[in-house]
Amino acid sequence: MKFSIISRLIAGWSIVVLFAMCGQGGSSTQTVDGSPIDRHVSRLILTRHARCRMDCRHITEKEIREILEEGEVNYRKSEPDSHPDPKYALEGYTKEGQHLRIVFAVPKGRAGGSLVVVTAIELGVEWQCDCK
C-alpha cells in the first residue's frame, strides 16, 4: 500500500516537472525574457513570399524589425508545434502607424541567430497582390 502511494507521488511530480520544462506545451522553448522567439537576432531570412507581400503592402525590413522587437505574440495565429519549424505571429504598430502581423519561423537550433520571415500582413487593409 505504501509503495503504491509513493509510486503515484513520484509519477505525479515527474509529470509536473516535465510540463514545467516544456513551457507552454509542444516543443517550443522560451528565451530569457519569456518570449518564444529571440527578438534580437542578427539576421532575418526573407522568403520569396514574404518579399512579395512586403512589396505589395509597402512594408520595409525596418518595420519588420520594429514588430519583432516591440510586437505581441498572437498565439491564436501562431503554430508552435509546426514542423519542420515552429511559427509565431507577432502583431503591433509601426512608428508610421501601420498595424502589422508578421509571421516568423524559428529554425531548429536557431540557425546561428536568424529568423525566417514567412509573411507580412497589414491588418485592416486590403492590398492588391499577385503573390503565389
Key terms for this structure?
132 residues, alpha+beta, YaeB-like fold, 2 domains, 5-stranded mixed sheet, 3 helices, 5 strands
Record the SSE blueprint:
Layout (H helix, E strand, L loop, with lengths): L1 H21 L20 E4 L1 H9 L4 H10 L1 E8 L7 E7 L5 E7 L8 E9 L10
Distance between the termini: 64 Å
Reported by name, the CATH topology of the largest domain is YaeB-like fold
- Work out the strand percent: 25-35%
Q: What is the CATH architecture annotation of the largest domain?
A: 2-Layer Sandwich
Q: Roughly how many Å is the radius of gyration?
A: 19 Å
Count of structural domains: 2
Global morphology: globular
Provide a count of the helices: 3
Q: Would you tell me the structural class of the helices and strands? A: alpha+beta
Q: How many β-strand stretches?
A: 5
The main sheet comes to: 5 strands, mixed
Supply the CATH class of the largest domain.
Alpha Beta
Mean pLDDT: 79
Unreliable spans: 11-29
Strand order, biggest sheet?
A: 1-5-4-3-2
SSE ordering: HEHHEEEE
Helix content: 25-40%
What does this structure look like?
This protein has 132 residues and is an alpha+beta fold. The chain folds into 2 domains: 1-30; 31-122, YaeB-like fold. It has helices spanning 2-22, 48-56, 61-70; strands spanning 43-46, 72-79, 87-93, 99-105, 114-122. The protein has a 5-stranded mixed beta sheet. It is globular, with a radius of gyration of 19 Å. It starts with a helix and ends in a 10-residue tail after the last strand. Mean pLDDT is 79; it is low at 11-29.
